[in-house]
Amino acid sequence: MNKEEQIKLIEDMQKVVEQMRLDDIEEDPETAEELFECSCCGKTKMLAGSIQYGKYRLCNDCVLLAETGLAIGKFKNIDELVKAMEDTRLQEMCEFIKQQEKRENN
Ligand SMILES: [Zn+2]
Question: Which residues place a Cβ less than 5 A from the ion ligand 1?
C-alpha cells in the first residue's frame, strides 16, 4: 500500500467511524451523555461511537486508530495498540500528577 492509498484509507475510515458515532446517538441519544474510560487512551469519553474489542472498550478516536492501524498493518491486534498507547497514557498521568503538585505547592 502506498502513501496515497493509505491517506485515502484513513479518510474513508474517518467517515465510517464518525458515522458509527452518529448512528449510536441516533439509536440511543443517551450514549452521547454516558461516559466511560477508554481502555486505549485512558481518557473519559462518550459511549457513542465506542466499540468493545474483546476485553477492551475503545473510544471513537481510538476506534479510528485501531481500524486504520489494523488495515495498514501497523499492528496485528488490539492488544498491540493498547500496549503501544500505554506509554502515552503514562506520560499523561505523569503530567497530571505534576500539575497537581504545582497546584498544591502554590
Ligand atoms: Zn480512546
Answer: 38, 40-41, 59, 62
Encode the chain (106 residues) as per-residue pLDDT tens digits. 888 998 899 999 999 999 999 999 999 999 999 999 999 988 999 999 999 999 999 999 999 999 999 998 888 999 999 988 888 777 777 787 788 888 877 6
CA–CA separation, 79 and 21 (whole Å): 23
Distance 20 CA to ligand 1 centre (A): 15
- Contact present, 71 and 13 (Cβ < 8 Å): yes
How far away, in angstroms, is 4 Cα from ligand 1 center? Answer: 26
Domain ranges, ordered by start, for the chain: 3-105
Rounded to the nearest 5 degrees, what angle is found at the Cα of 63, between the Cα atoms of 59 and 64?
125
